[in-house]
Amino acid sequence: MTVDSTTSLVLGRLRQVRGHHDAVVRCLTLLAPLLLVIFLVYAFAAEPRPGLTGRSLGLTVAVLAFPVAVLGRDLTSTRLRGAQIGFVAMALASSAALTWLQPTGPGDAAMLVSVLFLAGLLPRTAVAPFLVVAFVTIETIAWLTGQGAALTVLAGLYGLLLLAFRLNEVNKEAENLLAELRRSQEAQARAAGLSERQRLAREMHDVLAHSLSGLLLQLEGARMLAVDNPRDPRLPQIIERAHHLGRSGLAEARQAIGALRGDELPGPERLAGLAEAFERDRAVPCRFTVSGRARELGSEAQLALYRVAQEALTNIAKHAAPDRVELHLTYELGQTRLVVEDFAGDGPATPTVGRTAMAGATGGYGLAGMRERAELLGGRLAATTTGSGFRVELGLPT
Predict the structure, then answer these.
(1) CA distance 336 to 377
(2) Are 91 and 113 in contact (CB under 8 A)?
(3) What band does 94 get if pLDDT is binned at 50, 70 and 90?
(4) In CATH, which of 3.30.565.10, 3.40.80.10, 3.20.20.80, 3.30.1360.30 is domain 197-397?
């Protein structure tokens, strides 16, 4: 099971649990009107009874104000925080007045409900300590006045209601976090797809640029010889080289596709063969040397060394006419370094426009691909002109 499917499964389960919580909350909420009716009956039956004059009038106002505050608080949207604060204050004031004016009435129960409403306005970290202190205080007063049993039952009902609301909020937060995680996973999947397409583009460019450029050079030479002298004895040799380059290019393309499928990737062990093939096909001496103690490299690092050497030799064939080429692979402390350099005799070389562009920050796709390979592995690539040619240097951390 993938991470994304697991996230979806957990998200679905949380939504199912939230549905159950919503059902519980609805059931508990239906008890509110019944409890308010019981409150009114109890308040009008207790002594002293509400009336229309003096102290009895104040008691009547307190008894009627409390249900209004409860219903107003429950029906007000949470976005209207000012209105909710007003209704909670009204509930607290009416319950306090009821407790003072009618000690044997439901004032303690009303105070308990008001405290629960007030707890809903506090920061979450302060809710638990506040409720503990408030419940202990109210219960102590209620037991001293002989109303503790009824108050305990009411406290349990409202405690369940508050717990259900809190669990519902926690589930909503968990759903939001999981939804955000799933969006992040989708973005990562898109980024992985883009990275894979870029890798495929680099692989096919490196393979095709190396083989097709050599093939075109050989075919151009054959065309020029055929125009000048169709019987030139060098023609069969050039055509044979072109055939060899086309065949090796096809093999390289198959290897690149195999590498994308996870097959064995080319690495430093093939650099010597790459130098020999360049010398054979271009008739230019190409020397490959290794220094330092060889170490095991990651598959991507091995492929980067091979592709950078391949691309550098391709650029030499396309843009230069050197007397010799040298490849140096060095295993140093903390890094593996590859240098590919061409030399144009004893005098200073005059780089062509193409080679000058390669050294710049906005060079061709070949240089961009080499730099991308190096940067993805935490290394760096430098391509610069020298007094007698061109130098490409790749450094990869180990």
Answers:
(1) 12
(2) yes
(3) very high
(4) 3.30.565.10
